[in-house]
Amino acid sequence: MQAVQWEQGLHMEALANLAHELRSPVQAILGYLDILRDELSEAIDDRHKQIIERMNANAHDLAQTVENVMDFSVADAMAEAAYEEEIRPHDLIGELAPALEAANDSKGLEIGFDLEAAPTVFRSRRRPIKSILLNLAVNAIKFTDRGSVTIAIRRAVTSQRGSAVELEVRDTGPGIEAELVAQAFQRCAQLSHSSIRSHRGMGLGLAVVQRNVEALGATIMVKTALPQGSIFVVIIPIADPIAKALYQVSA
Asked: How far apart are CA 144 and CA 147, in angstroms?
């Protein structure tokens, strides 16, 4: 058993190294695409603009896949994930914007943000929280053909009456059949063969969400109704007493 675990550890380390090596060139590609869009926007026709936008969307897909592979290939308690810092919801949404715009380029969905009840700042682990929001939102965009995707961050109260932050991603997609909800969080799972043909990706997104939820000691709930869309809610407890000092509500 120890030999098997050691071998699996080596495979995971090799995968992590590969993903790390892929990250830099993918980010470089995204940077050059931004330059192309900025410098050539007035000099090229609509067809060539569309080509650049499609390249940008696919590059963002690849970047997110690399990040998800890294999440799966490193230890459960990642050093990066264990580092707590001050997080401002408005800044966090700004960090997500480029990937969401790229994912939505060919869809034209209404992307909404609800931060009215969000804390001004709270202290937690930025990387897993950002990963949860990004994977849930990009997944919602991929499976929603018309309507909207809304991301909300708000203050919440846990069952122990402690401080908590609630993340919500709501879409107007087809919804998920109740018996398939658990399956959706399995590694590399796709909900059907038709999904594989019509949607890009390895099926890592929701499994990465589940892993990060566990790492944060959080809980996740899924509300779905066919064909009215889905709501994913993640409640992240914020440890006291730090939370009391930093858990400020926007005016």
From this structure: 7
User: Do 154 and 63 fall into the same domain?
Assistant: no
Q: Number of folded domains in the chain? A: 2
**What would the DSSP string read from start to end of 119-178?**
EEEEEE-HHHHHHHHHHHHHHHHHT--SSEEEEEEEEEE-TTS-EEEEEEEEE-S----G
Please name every residue paired with 113 in a beta bridge, in sequence order, or none if there are none.
151
pLDDT digits (tens, 9 = 90+) for 146-170: 999 999 999 987 656 578 999 999 9
Which residue from 152, 131, 139 is spatially nearest to 209, judged by alpha carbons?
131
To 5 degrees, how large is the angle CA 144–CA 142–CA 48?
Answer: 110
Q: 28 and 124, same structural domain?
A: no
Report whether pLDDT(101) > 70. yes
d(CA 177, CA 161): 33
Element (H, E) at 112: strand 110-114
Spatial CA neighbour of 33 closest among 93, 134, 105, 94: 105
Question: What is the number of residues in the chain?
Answer: 251
Q: Give the integer Cα–Cα distance in Å for 74 and 71.
A: 6
- Mark whether 32 and 48 lie in a shared domain: yes
Range of the domain at 68: 2-73
The CATH number for 59's domain is 1.10.287
Q: Are 224 and 178 in contact (CB under 8 A)?
A: yes
